[in-house]
Amino acid sequence: MADERADGQDGVAPVESAETDHGGRAARFRAALTRAGRQARDLDRSEGLRTAVQRVRRVLPGDAHFGDPLSLGGARHAEFAGRAVVGLTGDRPGVTREVGLGGLQLWQSVLERFGGGVGEREVVLVFTDLVDFSRWALHAGDDEVQRAMRAVSEAWEKPVTDRGGTVVKRLGDGMMAALADPTAALEAVFAARTRLAEVEIGDWTPRMRAGLHLGRPRRVGGDYLGVAVNTAARLGERAAQDEILVSGELLARLDESSLRVRRKRWHTRLKGTPDDLQIFSVDRP
Description:
This protein is an alpha+beta fold.
């Protein structure tokens, strides 16, 4: 009897205690993983944090729109990695997605700066948008806004395609286009501005501004990427109503004698553009 009690005390009971303790640790570990996963998901879905990361991306060098499906069609490292980030995060917006794409955006910019992200062909990149469109749209209503966008698209896209150019994408109330010939590119913008002046939506006539730059951007799928794209976009943003800004690189390929040219100078450099960028306002004489 004594031996049986000893066996029960020294053999069976300790085994049951060890198994119970092991099961408890496993349960606590699973619970901790569940809490950590929930916290990670909540962090990734934080609208405030995602907005903050997007703000950072807008001031980083490179294309802040990197991650758009059109910008991920290439066969180089950045595009492969970008597709991987988008594939892992799916279509849902999140902090992880924005941080990953922001890093790739910076990487692509570095490649561009040191020659690894430069395309093979020169392209004139054109950015246009409407001045004070958002203010007008707030009061116009959806039907009027849609009617305006159709009329605007017809007004400035046809001059581009008529001259052998390509409308790369529509950007809200703006457009990005690419043309091979510098003179044709500028003529397309002049024609677009003239056609747009004939558009009337109620008592509102849309007015445009434009930026043009000649460079060797990377072709990625149906889009372009790199410093050359950023430069043209920044010129478009800085232009005034009805103004057309061009870079020194583009102006050098144009017949200045047929234009009215004025050098533009600002105290601050345009973000994401070359340090030696020269900017000119051009118009018909």
